[in-house]
Sequence to fold (302 residues):
Amino acid sequence: MNRTRALMEILLIYVSVALVGLLTYRYAPTLGLASLLDLEEGFSLEFLDQMLVADLAMTALIYVVSVAKRNSSAYDAYWSVIPFYFIVAFALNHDVASWGWPQWGAALLVSAWSWRLTLNWVRGWSGWDHEDWRYMNFRESHGRAFELTNFFGIHLFPTLIVFAGCVGLFWVYQPMAYDPVWHALGLAVGFLGVWLEFVADNELARFRHRENPTSEDILDTGIWGRLRYPNYLGEMLFWFGVCFCGFGAGAPWLTAAGAVSMVALFVFASIPMKEERMASRKPAFKAYCQRVPALLPRFRNR
Fold:
C-alpha cells in the first residue's frame, strides 16, 4: 500500500473514531463521577464524565484497528489528536461568545500543539509498513501476552494519562475563578514548549534527510547539541502550561497529576528505553551523553 493511500485510510479511521466518540458522548451511560466526587458548587462533572466515556470508546476502536492491521502505531496519532477533539467539544457545548482571552488562549495553545505534532507525525509516517520500534520489541518479547500489553500499555494507559493532562481544561471552560497570572504563565510555558518541539522536530527531520548518512551518526548540533531530548522537554512544558491555565480558572491542585505523570512517563520510561536503544546502536552515544545533558541545559561560564 503506498503512503498516500495509507494516509487517506488513517484519515478515514480517525473520522470514524470521532463519530464513535460523538455517539458515545450523546447516548452512552456515564461512569458516575459526579456522584463519586464532591467538588465546589457550580462546577459540573457531568461533561467531564461524558468526555471520558467517549475517550475510552474511541480508544477501544483504535485498538480494534491496531489488531486488525497488526500494527499498534495506528494509535500513535491519537496522542496529539484527542486534545484538539476536546477543544472542539468545548466550543460546541459552551457559549463561545462568552469566551475571554483565557479560553481563546488555551484553545490556541492546544490547537497549535495538536496540529503541529500531528503534522509532524504525518511527515514521518511511511505507511502501514512502519510500526514503532518499542511496539515491535513488545510484540516479540511478550509473546502471547502481547495483546494485554497492547491494550493496557500501548492504548489505554496513554489515553488515561493524556486525559489526566487535559482535566484542567474543563475548569478553563467552566471557570470557578480568574487568576490572570496563572493564565498568562500557563500560556507562556505552554507556547515555549510548542516552540521547543517545533525547533527540535524540524532539526531532527533535516538530520534524517541529510546527505551521505551513516548508521552511526548522532545529531549533536543546534538544540540537540544543548539537550539530548529537547522534544521531550517541550512536551513536558506544554502539559504544565495546560495545568497552569487550569489553576488560573480555579482547578484544584490535584489536577496537576496529569502533568506530573507526563514527566514520570518520559523520565522513567521513554528516556531510559531510548537511551538503551541508542547505546546499543551508536558507539559514540556514550560520549554524547557525557557531553550533552538530557533535559536541563548547562550554562557554561565563558
The mean pLDDT is 90. Residues 3-291 form one domain.
